[in-house]
């Protein structure tokens, strides 16, 4: 099996690791530099023309979000399944709507990578809430952007720059994604965006969503400036309160631990890739977070 990957940043390394773990080592990378850093087990190609001579099984797009549109447009001609790192696009525009229509029209299988769907505590929470009357949901994700890439000027990375597709509402779209995965797309929503914290970046560094469902509301808070990292998913039912600590991979019911997993976070990437290979690539479940579904979540995010 041959795989093409476009964009070799930190997230791409996780996808490469996953491919190797699953025994897929025939990996090609489309590079923009003529003298790029080499990566073990990855063969470099330097132009679109070279790609016509290689029969790829699928393509991974993991470059900056702001480049997704042009990249998808460029590779769609190969009619190969697309594994696209979240989010799908950096904006909702007429051009991107037309591109989505084109993806649907040519019937290319797509998957938008949201690895938290494969976090054990969230999979368990999905089972728990299925049979309970939900009254309220609270989702929180806060961390300190300068700690994301030590020894790097955080103001220069794409996350901190609006024009590169950065912003907490896009970086942490996981929260909206897993809520839609578990409960469906809300009937109504409202949001507050801010970018005036002490981080002094132009991208959104705080987002607060209120999502209205038929019988309950979900509140989502995202930020880039919390020093003590916190990522939780809380569900208040008619009788109990369930809290998933996504970092520790544990679930509490009324403050009593009822579930715990030793699953390393990197394994969510491996499980995600395995699911893509066994379900999206084979056509068994081609609509699991497809481009069409991810576009709805992107609209909610923006």
Automatic annotation (TrEMBL):
<feature type="domain" description="Gfo/Idh/MocA-like oxidoreductase N-terminal">
    <location>
        <begin position="1"/>
        <end position="97"/>
    </location>
</feature>
<dbReference type="InterPro" id="IPR051317">
    <property type="entry name" value="Gfo/Idh/MocA_oxidoreduct"/>
</dbReference>
<dbReference type="Pfam" id="PF22725">
    <property type="entry name" value="GFO_IDH_MocA_C3"/>
</dbReference>
<dbReference type="InterPro" id="IPR000683">
    <property type="entry name" value="Gfo/Idh/MocA-like_OxRdtase_N"/>
</dbReference>
<protein>
    <submittedName>
        <fullName>Gfo/Idh/MocA family oxidoreductase</fullName>
    </submittedName>
</protein>
<comment type="similarity">
    <text>Belongs to the Gfo/Idh/MocA family.</text>
</comment>
<dbReference type="Pfam" id="PF01408">
    <property type="entry name" value="GFO_IDH_MocA"/>
</dbReference>
<dbReference type="InterPro" id="IPR036291">
    <property type="entry name" value="NAD(P)-bd_dom_sf"/>
</dbReference>
<feature type="domain" description="GFO/IDH/MocA-like oxidoreductase">
    <location>
        <begin position="123"/>
        <end position="241"/>
    </location>
</feature>
<dbReference type="InterPro" id="IPR055170">
    <property type="entry name" value="GFO_IDH_MocA-like_dom"/>
</dbReference>
<keyword id="KW-0560">Oxidoreductase</keyword>
């Amino acid at each position: 099996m041959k795989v093409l990957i476009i964009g070799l940043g930190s997230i791409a390394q996780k996808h490469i690791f996953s491919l190797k773990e699953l025994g897929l080592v025939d990996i090609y990378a489309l590079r923009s530099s003529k003298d790029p850093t080499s990566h073990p087990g990855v063969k470099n190609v330097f132009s679109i023309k070279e790609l016509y001579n290689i029969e790829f099984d699928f393509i991974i797009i993991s470059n900056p979000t702001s480049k997704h549109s042009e990249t998808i447009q460029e590779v769609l001609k190969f009619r190969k399944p697309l594994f696209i790192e979240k989010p799908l696009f950096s904006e909702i525009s007429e051009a991107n709507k037309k591109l989505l229509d084109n993806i649907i029209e040519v019937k290319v299988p797509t998957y938008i990578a949201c690895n938290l769907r494969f976090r054990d505590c969230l999979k368990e929470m999905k089972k728990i809430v299925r049979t309970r009357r939900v009254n309220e949901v609270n989702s929180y994700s806060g961390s300190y952007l300068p700690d994301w890439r030590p020894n790097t000027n955080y103001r220069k990375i794409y996350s901190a720059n609006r024009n590169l597709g950065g912003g907490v509402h896009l970086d942490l779209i996981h929260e909206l994604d897993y809520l839609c995965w578990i409960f469906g797309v809300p009937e109504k929503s409202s949001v507050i965006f801010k970018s005036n914290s002490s981080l002094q970046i132009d991208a959104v560094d705080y987002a607060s969503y209120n999502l209205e469902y038929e019988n309950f509301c979900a509140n989502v808070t995202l930020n880039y400036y919390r020093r003590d990292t916190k990522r939780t998913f809380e569900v208040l039912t008619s009788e109990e309160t369930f809290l998933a600590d996504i970092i520790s991979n544990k679930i509490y019911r009324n403050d009593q631990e009822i579930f715990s997993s030793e699953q390393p976070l990197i394994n969510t990437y491996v499980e995600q890739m395995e699911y893509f290979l066994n379900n999206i690539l084979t056509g068994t479940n081609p609509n699991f977070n497809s481009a069409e579904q991810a576009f709805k979540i992107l609209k909610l995010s923006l």
